[in-house]
């Protein structure tokens, strides 16, 4: 990170760790960029834009403002913030009560992180009803996760990238719990983004009917969407092509049947409506062994 998340040290007293994850963590895990606590020393305002990261912080005490998207949020003790830092945002403290600025200077606890699937995770958070600023009944749990995250990042643990991934996953679980709004219907949630309803419905259709022969033209006609646009949106949303997703579903089914039934490859290929030779080649390409070898490995 070339830019710090919060102002320079002249503006704050902080206990922060700027973390450098391994290449493996950057490519495969939810990884930490920065974490810590701070107490603002003087009124200040900071602006950021285009950071490849996500920010979560809680306000320990004091007050401030967050400008994010087209809204301005007044923040006070107990508020939580979770935002996509690729978008422009700014935060400030000490300006709300100019006659007593010192009393309103805030103290924060935060983490700044990213990962290969974070864009999809944040989209899901928003679809569930998650907001950039919210109040929670689980504030102590957030503080515990952030404190443990800081401790792990400062340790010499030889598997700390994995432990950081685990702790950030715990943070995301808390955020998803707080995001859930049972009053938002599945359709209205997915329409938060103009194209989401189509893509979510497509995935649910694939989950139900992956054992049938499904073509891109079939999906295009069924969901009233251009097939090339559908391909693009599905890949953006789920990180894989429709064909790869279908193959993953089918191979998972075959693995279950090979381990827990006596069905032959011919029987399974008939169920999946593909040639037995094709299924065997696909299975070996994905798993590295033939269906027969896989069954022998797992069943002896």
Notes on the protein architecture:
The protein is of the alpha+beta class and 300 residues long. The protein is built from 13 helices and 10 strands. The chain has helices at 23-28, 101-104, 118-127, 139-153, 160-179, 186-190, 196-209, 216-223, 227-238, 242-260, 265-272, 276-287, 291-299, and strands spanning 12-18, 31-40, 44-48, 54-61, 63-68, 71-76, 79-84, 89-93, 107-114, 133-135. It has a 6-stranded antiparallel beta sheet with strand order 1-2-9-4-7-10, covered by helices on one side. The protein has a 4-stranded antiparallel beta sheet with strand order 3-8-5-6, with no helix packed on it. Mean pLDDT is 87; it is low at 1-7 and 185-197.
How many distinct beta strands?
10
What is the distance, rounded to the nearest whole angstrom, between the alpha carbons of the first and last residues?
50 Å
How would you describe the shape?
A: elongated
- Please identify the structural class as seen in this structure: alpha+beta
Helix content: 40-55%
Cross-sheet strand order for the largest sheet: 1-2-9-4-7-10
Number of helices: 13
What is Rg?
24 Å
Poorly predicted runs: 1-7, 185-197
- Please write the string of helix (H) and strand (E) elements: EHEEEEEEEHEHEHHHHHHHHHH
Report strand %. Answer: 15-25%
| Sheet with most strands | 6 strands, antiparallel
Query: Can you give the mean pLDDT?
Result: 87
């Amino acid at each position: 990170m070339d830019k710090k998340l919060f102002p320079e040290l002249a503006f704050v007293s902080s206990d922060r760790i700027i973390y450098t994850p391994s290449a493996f963590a950057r490519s495969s895990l939810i990884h930490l960029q920065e974490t810590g606590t701070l107490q603002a020393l003087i009124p200040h305002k900071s602006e950021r834009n285009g950071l490849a990261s996500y920010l979560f912080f809680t306000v320990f005490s004091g007050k401030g403002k967050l400008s994010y998207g087209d809204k301005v949020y007044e923040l006070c003790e107990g508020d939580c913030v979770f935002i996509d830092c690729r978008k422009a945002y700014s935060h400030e403290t000490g300006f709300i009560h100019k006659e007593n600025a010192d009393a309103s200077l805030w103290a924060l606890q935060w983490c700044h992180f990213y990962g290969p699937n974070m864009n999809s995770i944040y989209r899901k958070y928003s679809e569930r009803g998650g907001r950039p600023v919210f109040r929670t009944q689980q504030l102590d749990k957030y503080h515990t996760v952030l404190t443990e995250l800081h401790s792990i990042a400062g340790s010499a643990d030889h598997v700390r990238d994995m432990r950081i991934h685990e702790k950030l996953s715990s943070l995301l679980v808390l955020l998803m719990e707080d995001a859930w709004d049972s009053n938002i219907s599945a359709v209205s949630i997915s329409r938060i983004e103009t194209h989401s309803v189509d893509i979510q419905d497509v995935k649910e259709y694939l989950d139900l009917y992956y054992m049938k022969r499904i073509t891109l033209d079939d999906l295009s006609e069924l969901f009233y969407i251009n097939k090339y646009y559908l391909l693009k949106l599905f890949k953006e949303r789920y990180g894989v092509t429709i064909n790869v997703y279908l193959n993953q579903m089918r191979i998972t089914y075959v693995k279950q049947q090979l381990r827990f039934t006596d069905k032959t490859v011919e029987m399974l290929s008939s169920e999946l409506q593909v040639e037995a030779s094709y299924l065997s080649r696909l299975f070996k390409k994905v798993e590295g062994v033939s269906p027969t070898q896989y069954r022998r490995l797992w069943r002896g």
